[in-house]
Write a structure and sequence with these properties.
Layout (H helix, E strand, L loop, with lengths): L7 E5 L3 H12 L3 E5 L8 H5 L13 E4 L4 H7 L9 E3 L20 H10 L3 H16 L2 H8 L16 H8 L15 H5 L6 H5 L7 E4 L1 H18 L3 E3 L4 E6 L4 E6 L4 E3 L5 E4 L3 H7 L11 E8 L8 E4 L5 E7 L2 E6 L11 H20 L18 E7 L7 H6 L10 E3 L12 H20 L1
Parallel strand pairs: 1-2, 1-10, 2-6, 10-16
Antiparallel strand pairs: 3-5, 4-5, 7-8, 8-9, 11-14, 11-15, 12-13, 13-14
Helix pairs in contact: 1-10, 1-14, 4-5
The structure holds flavin-adenine dinucleotide.
């Protein structure tokens, strides 16, 4: 255990980031107080479920992209947390077939191994391993031609660039909102996206690139375990305490001002961490030097008459639609936040426009015919829909704010920012969150050692 005895640490915001950081620092021997406007050691995930669309109110783990295994590393040190908190996950997204070239993306070898292991009998396993290997080493052209009938390609330039759309989508995979147990994937579906390397396929150790956190284990086991360790290590909790503002000199934050009129006077060797979503962060400290990211996501849900056997997701950077999640009986559509949702009689025209766009996008990129799944309300050419005031799972970074993250400097020497919007090298998500916890811990260790 390190022996930092000088200053005190005040962590504002006891979500996953603040709780994880405060616990590590308390275990390092720092005098830590964790403040939350509600109750620390809860997750926005749990609270967000209250505003989540109906089809998303499930305890299904969601996929995220964590090539360095930072989330698993954090929890690996604690034996009380089941290792199945972080599971290997399977990702099938934006598959194209039919008239367009399929995109071929390299997925993690964990999936290939799982697929092989599922086959019954040696011959079936060997055959699957052989076809995966063959697919991996086939030329780009023959992989494409082997997948679709010849002569059916469109002349669309974009369609003929294999994989471009999907590789972009991988960058924001943290947001992919579905997961699918391997046994429910059809071989054809998986076969189209898997291109494992033979060496990786047979290597003994592998880290899955795609993972999923089990929300039940997180909420019922991991967060209470963090709380217990925090308290055992001498940490203090101040629940129902909302930060209103920070007073400062030009170099140092000097006072924390809370909404209940209480105040903490900081000594120069005290540190403050703001572990808040950018929206409440900017509300509390407007001069932080960044613009708030929207905390809500404009979402529509269209009712469909036939459920999706295989959930799918499409992430787009579009004037109208930001993402489409085909989720059971709903088509969940995240709208571009710049879009103006009318509140007059033109609302049905608006819905029609969104629906038409989804039909087109799903046809182009998911090979899905939405029209056959829809049951249009009488007199309308779009299905029933509703708007959902949904909390965004991860900060909705505008391109400007995402670019700004590279230059973002907290305004005072004793102030640190922690959370999934801050590590510039990651898209917001769990991997970004735990990377930030790791980075801020190092910065604090340097601060307290001086
Ligand atoms: C519907 C939904 C589903 C999700 N699903 C998943 C999933 O499947 N997998 C996954 O990995 N992630 C998921 N997430 C995202 C996950 O919840 C977040 O990544 C994570 O909770 C972020 O943690 P954080 O500590 O950065 O922020 P938060 O959890 O938002 O914590 C910030 C804390 O600060 C407190 N606070 C705010 N303002 C103040 C103030 N002025 N003073 C004091 N305290 C304040 C808040 O009460 C809050 O507790 C989901 C989120 C939602 C909403």
């Amino acid at each position: 255990m390190a022996s930092f005895t000088s200053g005190r640490l005040h962590v504002i915001g006891g979500g996953l980031a603040g709780s994880a950081l405060a616990t590590l620092m308390a275990e390092d021997g720092i005098d830590v107080t964790l403040y939350d406007e509600a109750e620390p050691f809860e997750s926005r995930w749990t609270r967000g479920m209250q505003t989540a669309p109906e089809s998303h109110k499930t305890a299904e783990p969601e996929i995220f992209h964590d090539p360095d295994g930072v989330v698993a590393d954090y929890f690996a040190r604690w034996p009380e947390i089941p290792t199945k908190l972080i599971r290997p996950a399977h990702c099938v997204m934006g598959l194209k077939r039919g008239r367009r070239k399929p995109a071929i993306i390299t997925l993690d070898q964990g999936i290939s191994r799982a697929l092989i292991a599922r086959r019954l009998g040696f011959i079936a396993r060997a055959y699957t391993a052989f076809s995966l290997w063959q697919n991996r080493y086939a030329s780009e052209e023959s992989r494409v031609e082997g997948t679709i009938a010849s002569g059916m390609l469109e002349s669309d330039e974009q369609a003929n660039v294999p994989g471009t759309y999907h590789r972009d989508a991988l960058a924001v995979l943290a947001e992919v909102l579905f997961s699918m147990p391997a046994h429910r994937c059809s071989k054809a579906l998986l076969g189209r996206v898997m291109t494992p390397k033979a060496s990786k396929l047979f290597s003994k150790s592998h880290e899955p690139v795609f993972s999923a956190i089990d929300p039940i284990i997180l909420n019922d086991i991991a967060l209470p375990a963090l709380r217990e360790r925090f308290i055992t290590s001498g940490g203090s909790i101040k629940a129902n305490t909302k930060l209103g503002d920070i007073d400062s000199t030009s170099d140092y934050a000097t006072d924390l001002l809370f909404d209940d009129d209480s105040q903490i006077v900081l000594k120069p060797n005290d540190a403050v961490v703001l572990a808040l979503h950018p929206k409440p962060l900017c509300d509390a400290v407007p001069d932080i030097g960044m613009t708030p990211a929207p905390a809500k996501r404009q979402t529509m849900a269209f009712e469909l008459k036939r459920p999706f056997a295989e959930p799918r997701c499409l992430l787009v950077s579009d004037d109208i639609v930001r993402a489409i999640y085909c989720n059971r009986r709903h088509l969940q559509v995240s709208l571009n936040s710049g879009l103006h949702i009318p509140n007059d009689g033109t609302i049905d025209q608006f819905a029609h426009r969104i629906w038409q766009r989804c039909v087109w996008l799903c046809d182009q990129y998911l090979n899905l015919d939405l029209q056959v799944r829809s049951e249009n309300a009488e007199g309308f050419d779009h299905p029933n829909y509703r708007f959902i005031d949904a909390e965004a799972p991860f900060p909705e970074l505008s391109p400007g704010l995402a670019a700004l993250r590279h230059r973002l400097q907290p305004p005072w020497k004793n102030l640190f920012l922690c959370g999934d919007s801050f590590p510039a090298e990651h898209a917001p998500g769990p991997a970004a969150l735990f990377t930030s916890v790791k980075q801020v811990r190092q910065q604090l260790q340097a601060f307290f050692s001086n």
